[in-house]
Fold this sequence. Notes:
The protein is of the alpha+beta class and 73 residues long. Helix content is 48%, strand content 16%. It has one domain (2-71): Orthogonal Bundle (434 Repressor (Amino-terminal Domain)). The radius of gyration is 12 Å and the shape is globular.
Amino acid sequence: MSRTVVVKLKELLIKKGLTLRKLSRLSNVRHAALSELANQKRLNVHFHHLASIADALDIDDMDQIITFEKIED
């Protein structure tokens, strides 16, 4: 059994009532990068992007942004 990283950005945006564009402006992270994260298309994540997103969304626990899910082999 292996694991994959899941970015929970879509759920957070709905919960906070924000769009990707608004989050992009608040966090100074490119809209394209946020879209790739939200759609699980991005293979790498910069720590400063995660910190900027957390600041913009007023999040202290990284588990609210990213988590691991088990994958059945």
